[in-house]
């Protein structure tokens, strides 16, 4: 009954207060999540592509470390006769996938490709990468804010980076 | 000019599978030409697939993606007859755009 009998100004103040609280409350959520995703999901990760080592590229791209997961299936040939065209595909049963990246450990720059996966897109990708020599292919899957990985060695008989 | 992008998008009613093949040299910057001079890096940086004005798949690429790149992915929410828009931009600022009908 207070609201109807009290002065109009007071009522408006209370309402404004409530709205402000609601806005702050809502605002906090996205801000809390944003930094983790911003690295991989906003724009072209120029810096990550410039890193030479796998570890530095992962750091620049995601800013966190990955743990191996058996829910990621990485499909790459045992032996690639032509390092310039190595078909590599990945699929995962992990949920809430937001990005998938491919790294080739011994390439001049480890990061090869990074894909942003919006809601409604299935976390299955096939692509073709260049490999300088026999080395590990590492795939990173960002799911529900965490980072998972799977790796496979591919033997390369003819390198694809002009070596 | 003929498009550099070739796309096949097929729907099974629920899931749309998209395959794209793009004509691009994807020069890594590590290869020398016949005269022994390095061919400068020239590669697609960003490839985008849009449906209904929303991104359904975005590829960020470095020079380690093979020449004439190929990529395959699938997404939900589209149906036969709908259109998807595909566009790329490379490190020299060149770009191309096309649309494809889902069959």
What can you see in these coordinates?
The complex is a heterodimer of chains A (163) and B (103). Chain A is of the alpha+beta class and 163 residues long. Chain A folds into 2 domains: 2-38; 44-156, Sandwich (Immunoglobulin-like). Chain A contains 4 helices and 9 strands. In chain A, the strands form 2 sheets. In chain A, strands 1, 3, 5, 6, 8 and 9 form a 6-stranded mixed sheet that branches. In chain A, strands 2-4-7 form a 3-stranded antiparallel sheet, with no helix packed on it. The longest helix of chain A is centred in the N-terminal third of the chain and has 34 residues, at 8-41. Residues 22-40 of chain A have low confidence and may be disordered. Chain B is mostly beta strands. Chain B has a single domain (5-101), classed as Immunoglobulin-like, CATH 2.60.40.10. Chain B has strands at 5-11, 15-22, 44-51, 54-61, 70-76, 83-90, 95-101. Chain B starts with a strand and ends with a strand. Chains A and B meet through strand 6 and strand 7 of A and strand 4 and strand 5 of B. Strand 7 of chain A pairs antiparallel with strand 5 (70-76) of chain B, so a sheet runs across the interface.
Strand fraction of chain A: 35-45%
**CATH class membership of chain B:** Mainly Beta
Number of helices of chain A: 4
Distance between the termini of chain B: 24 Å
Number of strands of chain A: 9
**How many β-strand stretches of chain B?**
7
Run of helices and strands of chain B? EEEEEEE
CATH fold call of the largest domain in chain A: Immunoglobulin-like
CATH fold-level topology of chain B: Immunoglobulin-like
CATH superfamily of the largest domain in chain A: SoxY domain
Largest interface: A-B, 34 and 30 residues
Strand content of chain B: over 45%
């Amino acid at each position: 009954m207070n609201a109807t009998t009290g002065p109009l100004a007071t009522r408006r103040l209370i309402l404004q207060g409530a709205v402000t609280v609601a806005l702050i409350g809502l605002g906090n959520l996205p801000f809390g999540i944003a930094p983790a995703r911003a690295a991989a999901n906003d724009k072209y990760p120029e810096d990550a592509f410039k890193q030479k080592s796998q570890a530095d590229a992962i750091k620049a791209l995601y800013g966190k470390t990955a743990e191996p997961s058996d829910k990621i299936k990485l499909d790459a040939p045992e032996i690639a006769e032509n390092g310039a065209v190595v078909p590599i595909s990945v699929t995962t049963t992990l949920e809430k996938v937001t990005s998938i990246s491919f790294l080739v450990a011994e390439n001049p720059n480890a990061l090869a490709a990074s894909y942003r996966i919006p809601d409604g897109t299935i976390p299955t990708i096939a692509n073709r990468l260049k490999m300088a020599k026999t080395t590990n292919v590492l795939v990173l899957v960002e799911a529900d804010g965490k980072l998972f990985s799977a790796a496979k060695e591919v033997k390369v008989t003819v390198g694809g980076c002009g070596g | 000019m003929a498009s550099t992008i070739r796309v096949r998008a097929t729907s099974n009613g629920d899931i749309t599978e998209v395959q794209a093949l793009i004509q691009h040299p994807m020069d890594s910057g590590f290869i020398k030409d016949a005269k022994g001079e390095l061919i400068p890096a020239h590669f697609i940086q960003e490839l985008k697939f849009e449906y209904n004005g929303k991104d359904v798949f975005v590829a960020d690429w470095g020079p380690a993606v093979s020449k004439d790149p190929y990529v395959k992915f699938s997404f939900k929410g589209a149906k036969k007859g709908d259109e998807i828009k595909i566009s790329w931009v490379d490190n020299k600022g060149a770009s191309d755009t096309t649309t494809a009908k889902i069959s």
